[in-house]
Amino acid sequence: MTRALIIIDVQNDFTEGGALAVEGGAAVAGAISALLAAHPHSYEHIFASRDWHDAEGGNNGHFAVDAEPDFVDTWPVHCVADTAGAEYHPALVMPESTVHIRKGQGQPGYSIFDGVDDAGTKFGELLIAAGVTDVDLVGLATDYCVRASGLDALAHGQHVRVFTNLVAGVAPGSSEQALAELAHAGAVLATSELAAQA
């Protein structure tokens, strides 16, 4: 069994003060860093995703252009490549070995499986190459990119644990629904105390 930690979109635009701020996002960033500091040997692989949207155009309908965003399928401009909003939150401290995944390059890109590493290799291919069988999922936002990434990980054949104390969502109701959907699909809902058992 090879376990990986997957950190979803802990970026400035998704935390307090950002273009699409999630309440509790900064606290999640700090708590993930604390987890990594407390359990430096629990994970053979760590992957971190970021929205990395194109500055020009609507990213295939993801950005609201010439209309108000509906906050379901269309959104305000956020996480544009090479801007401060697209950078990781400063409280998120990751080891140098972390593999960084960029997603949403011209597309909506909710799931980490939509992304690629710096060499252009798809995330799912990276998991296979590393022999990863089990993943722990943390990050932002519970009801969107965490949900999509978890469902895709299950479809990819991974055993998935979602650390519910290390995620934060856009809204309480949709976040609870997303966690229920993940559990129904086969994910284990747990807390980061289980990281010691990785």
Helix content: 25-40%
Q: Biggest sheet, strands in spatial order?
A: 3-2-1-4-5-6
- CATH class (first level) name: Alpha Beta
How many separate structural domains? 1
The largest sheet is: 6 strands, parallel
What fraction strand?
Answer: 15-25%
CATH architecture: 3-Layer(aba) Sandwich
Q: Encode the helix/strand succession as letters.
A: EHEEHEHEHE
What's the end-to-end separation, in Å? 10 Å
Low-confidence regions:
none
EC number: 3.5.1.19
Family: Belongs to the isochorismatase family.
Organism: Cryobacterium lactosi
Keywords: Hydrolase, Metal-binding, Pyridine nucleotide biosynthesis
Secondary structure elements and pairings:
Blueprint: E1 3-8, H1 25-38, E2 45-51, E3 99-103, H2 123-130, E4 134-140, H3 142-155, E5 159-168, H4 172-185, E6 188-190
Parallel strand pairs: 1-2, 1-4, 2-3, 4-5, 5-6
Helix pairs in contact: 3-4
Question: How does this structure look, described?
Answer:
This protein is an alpha/beta fold. The chain has one domain (3-197): Isochorismatase-like (Rossmann fold, 3-Layer(aba) Sandwich). It has 4 helices and 6 strands, in the order βαββαβαβαβ. A 6-stranded parallel beta sheet has the order 3-2-1-4-5-6. The longest helix is centred in the first third of the chain and has 14 residues, at 25-38.
Summarize this entry quickly.
The protein has helices at residues 25-38, 123-130, 142-155, 172-185, and strands at 3-8, 45-51, 99-103, 134-140, 159-168, 188-190.
Notable traits:
25% helix, Rossmann fold, 6 strands, single chain, alpha/beta, 198 residues
